[in-house]
Amino acid sequence: xxxxxxALAVMTPAFALADARSYVRARAAAADGQVGVAAAGYxxxxxxxxxxxxxxxxxxxxxxxxxxxxxxxxxxTVLTRAEVAPADVAILDFADAVRTRNRAAADDALGRIGxxxxxxxxxxxxxxxxxxxxxxxxxxxxQGADSGLSRRYVTEHxxxxxxxxxQIDEAVTALQTVVTADPGSLDLRWNAAQLFAAKGKRQIAVxxxxxxxxxxxxxxxxxxxxxxxxxxFGASRALTRLAADLAGQETQALSILLxxxxxxxxxxxxxxxxxxxxxxxxxxxxxxxxTVLDAVQPASPxxxxxxxxxxxxxxxxxxxxxxxxxxAELAGARDATTADLQxxxxxxxxxxxxxxAAPVYAKIVERAGDRATWINYLQLGGALERAGDxxxxxxxxxxxxxxxxxxxxxxxxxxxSQVERGENLPEALALLERASALRPDDxxxxxxxxxxxxxxxxxxxxxxxLERAARGDPSSVAINEHLGDVYWRVGRRFEAxxxxxxxxxxxxxxxxxxxxxxxxxxxxxxxxxxxxxx
Length: 534
Fold this sequence. Notes:
Blueprint: H1 5-11, H2 17-31, H3 35-48, H4 53-66, H5 69-81, H6 89-99, H7 103-114, H8 122-132, H9 138-143, H10 148-164, H11 168-181, H12 186-198, H13 202-208, H14 214-222, H15 231-246, H16 252-265, H17 270-282, H18 286-294, H19 303-316, H20 320-331, H21 338-350, H22 354-368, H23 374-386, H24 390-403, H25 408-421, H26 425-438, H27 443-455, H28 459-472, H29 477-489, H30 493-504, H31 509-521
Helix pairs in contact: 1-2, 2-3, 3-4, 4-5, 6-7, 6-16, 7-8, 8-10, 8-15, 10-11, 10-12, 12-13, 15-16, 15-17, 16-17, 17-18, 17-19, 18-19, 19-20, 20-21, 21-22, 22-23, 23-24, 24-25, 25-26, 25-27, 26-27, 27-28, 28-29, 29-30, 30-31
C-alpha cells in the first residue's frame, strides 16, 4: 500500500505539508545512501520543528554520516534536552568540548559517558583529561581496571600514558607485555611509536614498527612526525581503537560517530579516516566514503590502504570496472607491491576473467621465488584450469599439493579437477580421500569424493557421501546435480528428478538448461556433459 504525503504527515512528526514532503524526500535519500541530501532535508525540517525528537534523531545520524557536525550537534542538543539522546551523543559532546577547550562541558559529557553503556571508555578518557590538566592520570585508570570490557583499553592506555609522562623504561616493559599478548596490535604500536618519537626516542619508535609489511615500512618513515601527547591525542586514539574493534560488525552508525569524533580531535588521523570510510561503505554511503578517502594524501603511511579501500567502495557500489581499472593502475605502477598484484588478480578472477588473472598470479609466483606458497601456486593453477589451460594448470596444482600435502583445499582442487576430466582416477581418489579425512564436515570435499566414486562406477560408496554433502549444503547446484545423477544410476528416478529440481532452483544459463533436460529426459549422454566445478 502506498501512503500519501498527507497520510505520512499524520504518522510522522507534526509539521507543515511542505515540510512533510521534505521529510519524505530526506528519508528516501537516506535509504539510497545520499546522506548529504538527507542531512540537508532533515536540517530544513528541524528548523521549522526544532523540538521534534523523530526528526532530530534522523538529522543526527545523517549529519554524522555526511560530516555536517554543526547539524549533528544541533540535533544532539534537541535529543539531550528531551532526555532521549542516544548514548553516543555524549561522545560527540566530549570531543567538541575538548576541541574548544571547554573543560566544564568536557566534564559534563564525560559524566554522561560514565553513566551510560559506553562507560568502559570513561577511565581512559578521565586519565587523559587528568594528564592534560597536569594531574596524575593513573588513579583514573586504576578505577576502571576491574571492568572486563575496559581492561584492554586501560592496559593499552596505561602504556601510552607512561610514555606521555616520561616513564620510558616502564612504558617499554608495559608495551612488551601487551604486544606479546596481541602481536597484531598495529594501532597500539603506531600510537606508542608516535609518542616515543615526540619524546625524542626515535630508535624505540622504529623498533616498534619493525617488519617488511609495506604499511610498517611507511609508518617507520613517518614516525618522526608524531603529535605531542595530549587529551585530544589520547581520546582520539581510544575512540579509533573502539571503531577498529567494531569493524565488520553491524554497528556502522556507532563507528561513524566514533571516527567523526576522533577526527574532530585529531584531523590528521588517517587511520580514523579509513575506518570512517569503511563504516560509510557499510551504510551504503559510497560517494561520501570516497570523499573521505580523498583526504588521505599520497604522503600518508595509510595512502596504500586508502587506495585499497577505494577499490572496495567502487566494487561494493557495483562499479566493478572502475574498481578493476584502479586495481590495474596500482598493479602496473613501478613500485607496485605484491599486495597490489594480488588484489588485481583476485578482482579479475572474481569477474570471471581467468585468462587475464593467470599472468598476474604468475607474476606473484615469480616475484616470490622460493618463498612462493601453496596458495600462490593454487591460485595460479586454478586460474589456468578455469581458463581452459589444463596442461598449464596441472604442474602448478601439483606444486601446491607438494608444498602443502595436508591442505584439504589443495588436495580437493587437484583431485576433483582430474576426476572431472577422467584422468588419473586412482591418484585423484587418494587425494580426495585424504582431503575428506582432514576435513570430514566440508560439504564441497565430501561431494568431490562422492563424485569421484561415481565416476569410478562405485555407486554404493558414492550415494551416502553425496546425500551427506547435500544435507551440508542444500543450495549447491553442483552437489544436488551430482546427487540426482547417482540416484538415476541406481534406479531411483523420482528422487533423481527431485534433486535436479532442487539444483535448478539456483542454476543459471547452461547449467539450468542442462538440468531442465535431465528432468525431462533423464541422464543421457548429452545431459551428462558438465564443466569442471568445485
